[in-house]
């Protein structure tokens, strides 16, 4: 997986966790790009995707607010431990992950559409 794919997958998991200071659903594409740029500015590359994934898995269950790039960088394991992190996923696991990501993205879009479609109730006339 590329760095962007790992970030996208893990930030959508964060959306599901309903964290404080989370961006709106329509801002997610921009949020993913900014997180990737911030990580790359600190020397993180596609070769570090497994380390970034491990960092999100480490901090994800304990997060109470939206993660930042520094939070991910601090949680990243050392490069030497990368060998232990890499486990090839089966095609079935990839399909399940993609289906879950698609489902979460669809829920986020539906929620944004419902929120944007809400019209204020007319005030009763006396």
Protein model, in words:
- The chain is an all-alpha fold and 126 residues long.
- It has one domain (3-117).
- It is 61% helix and 0% strand.
- It has helices spanning 3-16, 28-41, 49-59, 69-75, 82-85, 91-117.
- Helix 1 (3-16) packs parallel to helix 3 and helix 1 packs across helix 6.
- The longest helix has 27 residues, at 91-117.
- The mean pLDDT is 87.
Key descriptive features of the protein:
126 residues; mainly alpha; 6 helices
What are the SSEs and their pairings?
Elements: H1 3-16, H2 28-41, H3 49-59, H4 69-75, H5 82-85, H6 91-117
Question: Would you summarize the structure shown here?
Answer:
Helices cover 61% and strands 0% of the residues. It has 126 residues and is an all-alpha fold. It is elongated and about 75 Å long.
Instruction: Output the number of helix runs.
Output: 6
Q: Count of DSSP E strands?
A: 0
Average of the residue pLDDT scores? 87
Describe the largest sheet. Answer: none
Q: Helix/strand-derived class?
A: mainly alpha
Distance between the termini: 62 Å
Number of domains: 1
Shape: elongated
């Amino acid at each position: 997986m590329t760095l962007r794919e790992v970030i996208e997958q893990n930030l959508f998991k964060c959306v599901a966790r309903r964290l404080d200071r989370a961006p709106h659903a329509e801002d997610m594409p921009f949020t993913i790009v900014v997180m990737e740029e911030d990580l790359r500015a600190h020397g993180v590359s596609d070769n570090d995707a497994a380390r970034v994934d491990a960092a999100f898995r480490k901090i994800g269950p304990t997060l109470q607010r939206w993660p930042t790039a520094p939070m991910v960088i601090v949680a990243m394991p050392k490069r030497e431990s990368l060998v232990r992190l890499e486990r090839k996923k089966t095609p079935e696991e990839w399909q399940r992950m993609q289906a879950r990501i698609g489902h979460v993205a669809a829920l986020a879009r539906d929620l944004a559409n419902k929120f944007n479609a809400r019209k204020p109730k007319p005030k009763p006339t006396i």
